[in-house]
Amino acid sequence: MADCPELQMMPAPGRRLALHVGDRIRFDLAPAGPDGAHAFVRTTLGRDAQVRAEAQAPATHRRALAGAAWRDVPMRRTAAGWSVDLTCTEPGFFLGKPYLIDADGTTHWPAGADVGLSVHSGRWRSGNTIYCAFPRLFGPLRNRADTADRLIADQLAVLDRHGYTVIPASGTLRDVAQAVPHIVERLGCRILHLLPVNPSPTVNARMGRYGSPYAGLDLTGIDPALVVFDRRTTGIDQFRELAYTVHRHDARLFIDLAINHTGWLSRLQEEHPEWFARNADGTFRSPGAWGTTWEDLVEIDHQHRPDLWDHLAQAFLTWCRRGVDGFRCDAGYMVPVEAWRVITSRVREEFPDTVFLLEGLGGAWSATEALLTDGGLQWAYSELFQNYSGREVAAYLDHALVQNRRCGLLVHYSETHDNNRLAASGRVWSLLRNRLC
Question: 3-class SS at 302?
């Protein structure tokens, strides 16, 4: 067995391709070699069950037979060499590479790395316009340009100085459900993406009066502020009502779920403090980025924590069983590839069409590429919203269009929760940026 520089393959060695279920991929190998030679493609394509078993082995403590996902597919001889067409039949990340066996049984490989194939569900081939909603803002003041109440602002300031926590009225999941016809039918959005709906720490809030929605206290809990007091239903029931409404309009539901951190005193921190990172002095560590420390958060330690990864996979599955079709993975680039492989493979086992949207802002492109391939995630945040001049926009789109074909969609959000609202710059500016995206 040896690398053979004379052998040429297509797709080229090391190439990455993003495909959908139902697509076909053609492998070519040349030259044909001497009489009596045979050629094969060694690939994991079509063996997703075995790929998942190997990925989940650290968390399930089950032994996985190394290399069990690989199979050899015979190639047919052509005038130019060897060729075979393979059909993508299931979502996942797969590898493949053709090779030649000559008449005396010697194996020859083209020089270079395997081809990587990111196969996505056919459900997400097109029409993926996203409406991002912050449920708290869907209350009675949702149509106002300024939600500050000048009449009580001075009173609230006095209460703040005396250490009181003042929690204003909130929009609810049912308020969002009432807006679904407008979002889907009038605006034409096919995906409703909810910012986190988990309970947040209002008592020690560091962002607004409710606290940051990204300081979640329970990975599978519903924030009581988002629930109507209704003796017939639970908060989970009301979330399922929203999911049903979205699906009834032939749309899909995404939620934000952060697994790089939780809020201080979260249920996970109380039950498993050993799963959290600590500083040299033994104090719990808060994560951060861009020179800012997020003091209302505590960082999860993912290093060599297969039990933790299994626990997190169960949280994702819980939301899928409630009707969620996809997840925005906040600060996902801070979570290791090994953890994501366990989580995505476990979810794909039960819900193969689920989309994982990586928030990789602040991370290197190499980390994003690794997570969109080996990690099993499908989409990633685009950085188009940070580009403004014609030259910046053109250069970034050149990058994005290439990566869409290589790894997966780079999703163009026109604004994010980390930036000022587009509307602050006026209606015309908002429309232009939305149309661009």
Answer: coil
256-294 pLDDT tens trace: 999 999 999 999 999 999 999 999 999 999 998 777 888
Q: What is the mean pLDDT of the chain?
A: 92
Beta strands 115-120 and 16-20, pairing class: parallel
DSSP H/E element including 24: strand 24-30
CA dist 83 to 41, 96, 406, Å? 9, 13, 22
Prior bond to 306 cis, omega within 30?
no
User: What backbone phi and psi angles, to 5 degrees, belong to 403?
Assistant: -70, -30
Burial of 168 (0-12, 13-18, 19+ CB in 10 A): middle
Burial 24-38 (b: 16+ CB within 10 A, else e): ebebbbbebbeeebe
**pTM over cut 0.85:** yes
Place of tokens 């924590």: 305
Strand partners, 98: 41
DSSP code at position 183: I
